[in-house]
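Task: sequence design from structure.
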């Protein structure tokens, strides 16, 4: 199952178990108060029964929390890996762009003719470098030597689209074991074992 499908189930289990723990604890506190006031032994039995139920619910809560922690850890790892991959791609792309910019700078300094798009990229990168290259280009062109005309280095460039790391993590298959969490259910003061 995908993480986005499993995560809500175990989150809902946690919510239900938390509510059940609160309810059982309140019932136990009421029974303890009633025992102190009335000294009736039926409240002692109810307290013992509620204590067992609280222990069972706490065990179910801890088991559920372990699975939920595992799911969240895998989700975070996948999202972080995807994010790191995207950052590495961006750094690689940045390096390639800097090489292209230096190539444009070198070509202009030799007096070669480069496309306006390439000149603009150099200017956006560093205005001082662009001004220096433009001056060198003008001086080299005045020497009446043969000038090369170059195609744009960014001609076939297309913008990469990246997936959202959270979406990638959500749609990853969960690799762990997904147990059914048995939750004691309280109905009319009586406890019954049910399986979610």
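Answer:
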């Amino acid at each position: 199952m995908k993480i986005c499908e499993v995560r809500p189930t175990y989150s809902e289990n946690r919510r239900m178990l938390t509510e059940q723990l609160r309810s059982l604890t309140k019932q136990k506190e009421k029974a303890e108060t009633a025992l102190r006031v009335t000294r009736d032994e039926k409240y002692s039995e109810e307290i013992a029964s509620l204590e067992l139920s609280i222990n069972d619910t706490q065990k179910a809560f801890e088991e559920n929390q372990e699975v939920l922690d595992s799911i969240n850890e895998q989700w975070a790892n996948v999202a972080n890996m995807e994010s790191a991959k995207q950052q590495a791609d961006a750094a690689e792309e940045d390096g390639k762009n800097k090489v292209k910019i230096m190539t444009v700078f070198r070509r202009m300094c030799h007096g070669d003719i480069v496309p306006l798009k390439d000149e603009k990229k150099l200017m956006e990168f560093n205005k001082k470098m662009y001004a220096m290259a433009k001056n060198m280009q003008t001086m080299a062109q005045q020497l009446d030597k043969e000038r090369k005309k170059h195609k744009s280095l960014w001609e076939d460039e297309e913008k990469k689209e990246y997936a959202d790391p959270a979406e990638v993590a959500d749609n990853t298959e969960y690799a762990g074991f997904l147990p059914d969490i048995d939750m004691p259910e309280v109905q009319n003061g009586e406890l019954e074992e049910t399986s979610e």
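The chain has one domain: 3-157+179-189.
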